[in-house]
Every structure is written in C-alpha cells, then in structure tokens.
Task: structure prediction
Amino acid sequence: MKLYCILLFLLMLINCNKEPKVFEFTIETVDKNIAKELELIKNQKPYGLVFQDEKYEVWNSCSGEWGGTIYFKNKHNGEIRYAQSTCTASVNKIGDRYYISNVSTHLYERSSVLEIINPEKMELTLKLPPFHPEIETREYETESNLGTKTIVDSVGVSILTSFVYKNNLYSILKNYKNDLITISKVENNKFKTAQTLDGLILNDSPQIVKESENHQKLYFQHPKSGVLDIKDNKIKFTYYKNN
Result:
C-alpha cells in the first residue's frame, strides 16, 4: 500500500510538471485534386509580395547560392529599403516589429529569423527587381545587414512557415536529423520545440496562401499532396487522395 501511494504521488508529480499542449493538431483525408486548387490560387497576389500593412509592401527575391533580399517599400513616399534575407519563407509582425523567417537548402539546410525594429534604418535602394519565377535576379541581391538583427540561426532545419499566436512567433520546422515536423519558438537564440506534429511528413517549399493575419494554408505536392491549415492554435493537415 505504501509503495502504491509513492508511485501514485510520483505519477501526479510528473503530470503536474508536463506543460499542456498549446496547439490542437488533427489529420484527415479527402478525395480532392490539389492541382485544381493550386491553379485557382496561382494568381491571387503578385509574385514576390510576401506581406503588407498600412505602411509597407514587403517583397522578397531569392537566388539560392547567390543570396536573397527583403525589400520594404514605403506606401507613403515610395522609398525602398532592403537587406540580406536568404531566402524569405514568411514575414510576421508583432507590435511594431517585423520578423523575417529565412530558409536556405543550398548544400545544407539552414534557417534564421531576422528582427527589424525600424525599416527606415535599412539601406536605401532605387528600385525593386523584376519579380518572376523564371527570372534570376542575383544581380540585385544585397549583402547589407543594416537595420536588421539575427535572433536565431540554425543548421539542419528548414522553416516551412512562421506565424504569430498570442504575441509569440512560432515556426513550423522540418528537422533533417530525425525527419520530424515541429512547432518551435525562439528562446535564447535557439529554436525550442513547443510541440511535435506526430505522423506528419512534409517536403520543402510549400505554396503559402495567407488568408488573414491569423490564418494561412500551406499546399504541398511531395511526398504526398495535402494542405496544412494554421488558424490561431488549430492546425490541421488534409491529405488529398487525388493528385
């Protein structure tokens, strides 16, 4: 009886110390064709435009091994500021601060997050490059880091996207050491896993559709077709049977 009480106490202590899951994660399968949906969303926004608010249009270009660039175009005076960003997966805003999530898969996987407090402190440039998926724009890529601060830089993981929930920046990460998909946030200049999305296998470079500030969809075609839907703390992956 005494041993049973001790074991029960230890079990209660372990459960008390476990943090509750922040995110609800579900998986379902539907008989739909992802190619048809992708065709419909293909021209929803200009290629290269990744974010905008009341003051800025935010554009990005990516030339792989030759680098990438993030551009802030002021809507009021037309000025364009830019900084190195290889290569932008998503842009988020918390308060007045902008967070640029970057990923590079050239030679090895590497992900980083930049913090930009005031875009007006970035380097000034004269124009945006031509944005087209078939045009290589490496001649425009900058090496300037003026006005930016790297808050995390990690090798071996790819950021698929980032999002804000309760004023915290979270990233969906693919970890190449164990092939796990996790939700992580930045703590002490490192990605800290908040939750593992069990049973999920995803590839890089999804087609991202931002429905609103708290809702986005990621369309994947390999290794299986499907959509990762992120809305507040609810995350759902829908497998498409018909490719």
User: Anything to note?
Assistant: The longest strand covers residues 24-33.
